[in-house]
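Now for our target.
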Amino acid sequence: MKILEIARRARIAALKMSNVNTDSKNHAILEIAKEIDSARLKLQEINGSDVNAATRDGLQSSLLKRLKLNDSKIDDIIKGLQSLADLDDPVGKTLFSIEMDQGLELFKVSCSIGVIGAIFESRPDALVQISSLCLKSGNAVILKGGSEANKTNQFLSELIREKIFESNIIPKDSVQLIDTREDVKKLLELDEYVDLLIPRGSSSLVKFIKENSKIPVLGHTEGICHEYVDKDADLNMAVEICYDAKVQYPAVCNAMETLLVHKDIAKQFLPQIAQKYEEAKVELRGGTKTREILPEIKKASEKDWQTEYLDLILSIKIVESLQEAIDHINYFGSHHTDGIITKNKNRAQKFLNEVDSAVVLHNASTRFSDGYRFGFGAEVGISTEKIHARGPMGLEGLVSYKYIILGKGQIVSSYTGKNAKQFTHKSQDKTWNSTKNS
C-alpha cells in the first residue's frame, strides 16, 4: 500500500477513534494483552529470528539487548497494558469552565491529537507501548520500527490490528506499520494528514526528522544521564544507587552514563564503587583526578562526557563543588534524567532547582525515569523537549484540547457599542457532559 493511502486511512480512522467510548478502548487493550500472552512462544520464535539475523549483521550488543524479547520483557509488556487499561480516559476531561455571561458557558475539554507518526529503533516492545497509548488516547498511529526488528514488529502490529478489528468499534487502520526508510521520507511530507511526529532514537534520527518535515516533532532523543555523589552523601546508599543506575539495565536511555563525585569523598567512595563495577565487568573511564585514585582505568576524553554508551561503560569525573556538578550536567547532558545523592536537603534543593533536565532525582536511581514506574501505564518515550510534553510521555502527552461554548442565542453585537453588556467571566465548577465515556 502506498504511504499516501496509509496516511489517508489513518486520518479517517483518527476521526472515528476520537469518539470511541472508554469501555471499548479498555477492552481492546486487555484483549491485546491476553493475545500477546497466548502467542508468547510464537512471538519469541519470530523475535529470535530477528535477533539471530541482527547478530550475524554485527548489531552492537546494547541494541541486541533491546531487540530481544525474553519472558521478563513480555511480562512487562502485559503488565503495562493491564495498567494502561486501569487508567482514566484522557479524552473528554474538563480542564476548566467559566460562565462568560448568564446562559453563555465556556468549557476547555481534552481531545485526541489525531494521527501520530512514531519512528523508533531496536525495541519491538516500544511498538506495543506506543500503539496502546495511542489507542487509549483516541489517536491513530503510523509506526516505523527499526529494520533489525522487522519480523517481530510485523507480527505484533498484525496481532494488534486483528484484536482491535474484532471489537467492531475501533477502526483497524488506527494502527498501521510502514517498512522502509523511503516510506519515512514520504511520511515526513504528509503534513495534511499527520498531526505529530514522535521520533524515538538517536540524536541524528531526531535531527533528520526535524530538518525534513513541516509536521510538528516531539523528539525523544538520547539519554546522557548523571548521578552526582555529594560530599554529604550516605556512601553506602550512593554505592547501591550508582550500581543500579548503571548495571541494572545499561542498554536503555535512563541508565547513568557519567558519574560525578565530590572531591571531599572521592578517595573513600571511588574504590568502593569501582570494586562493585569490576564485579559487573563495567569498563570505567576517568578524568585526571579520578585516575589518581583509580590508576588502572582508562583515560576519559572530552567525547566521553557527551556519549550515551548504552552499555557497561561509565565515565567518572571528580568535581570541586556542587555548582561544578550542576554546570557539567547542564553543559554536557542531554536534559533527560539526572540525580543527586546527599543527606543535605538544601544542597539537594539547589540541584533539583538548577539542573535543567526533564527528570531530576534526589537519592534515587536514574532508572526510575520511566512511564510505567511513574504510573502512566507505559510511555511513548522520554521527551527532552520543553513544549507540549516533557519527560516520560504517557497519555497526557497524546491529547490536546478544544474549547466548547454553550449559548442560548447570544450574539457578539450585544457586547459592543454604547450599551454593551458586560461579560461576567465567573469560574464555575461544571463538567462538560459528554456521552462518549459513558
Summary: The CA atoms of residues 267 and 293 lie 6 Å apart. The longest helix spans residues 22-38. The chain has two domains: 3-220+380-399, 225-368. The chain has a mean pLDDT of 93.
